[in-house]
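Q&A log
Question type: sequence-to-structure
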Amino acid sequence: MEHIASAVAVMYLGRIVEEAGTRELFKKPRHPYTQALLASVLTPKPGLGLPETHLGLEYPNPIDPPSGCTFHPRCPKATELCSSVAPQPLIEADRMVECHYPD
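Response status: OK
Response body:
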């Protein structure tokens, strides 16, 4: 995507959680899921092994998603707020992120 698109939308459980210009998104991802996705990209360097994303092995049920922010059960930044209140989209210039604690 980094080399063929001018903009990227990242989805989690059927919702766009971050959207930005490609350069901006790859340079500074703001949603924890986007950060984990980019950290999980395999490298061609031998011996580095598989990247650790810290997302755990459990996936939420998309038919019955978690309350609040649907990513909170897997999010390293999650707080009580995340489990009870869905974040509203934060829109800045040409960028959108749905997170209570974006970087």
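Response note: The helical segments are 22-27, 32-39, 80-84.
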